[in-house]
Amino acid sequence: MVIKSAEDLKRLKEEAKALTGIRAGQGVEIIVGMGTCGIAAGAREVMSAILEELNKRELADVRVTQTGCIGMCEKEVLVDVVRPGEKRITYGNVKPQDVTRIFSSHVINGQIVDDLVVAKLD
User: Fold this and answer.
1) Residue range 69-102, pLDDT digits in tens
2) Which CATH architecture group holds 28-121?
């Protein structure tokens, strides 16, 4: 699916939420920076790649959300991965082609993708 508007993105997000059936506090959470700076850097395309990867892998324990600008505009597109009981990892300069690696390494296997990390938060 090609995302051409905010409504397309919203619809895709709702479809993904319905597929996963996740509630807050359970499973892995992926947060995409969708502020103006993130969108200008390609956040819509990264969000689309994340939702496609989620759908392809049929993961039921991953929740995808979005946030506004967090002040690291030069590092956009920013993607956070929060695994239960682990530090929140912020990946920067994420491109759609990085999404498969983030999923296979970190989301699924818990192995941080060091070359994309810009922050580790408690």
Assistant:
1) 888 999 999 999 999 989 999 999 999 999 999 9
2) 3-Layer(aba) Sandwich (3.40)
| Beta pairing partners, 17 | none
Query: Model-level pTM?
Result: 0.79
Q: Which two tokens stand for residue 11?
A: 């619809």
Helix, strand or coil, per DSSP, at residue 20: helix
* Nearest-angstrom CA–CA distance, 120 and 86: 10
pLDDT category at 1 given cuts 50, 70, 90 is low
Domain boundaries, the chain: 28-121
Q: Which residue in the block uniquely carries the two structure tokens 């969000």?
A: 47
Q: Which residues contact 52 (CB under 8 A, 6 or more apart)?
A: 1
Contact in structure between 39 and 73 (CB atoms under 8 Å): no
Specify whether the CB–CB gap between 53 and 98 falls below 8 A. Answer: no
DSSP 91: E
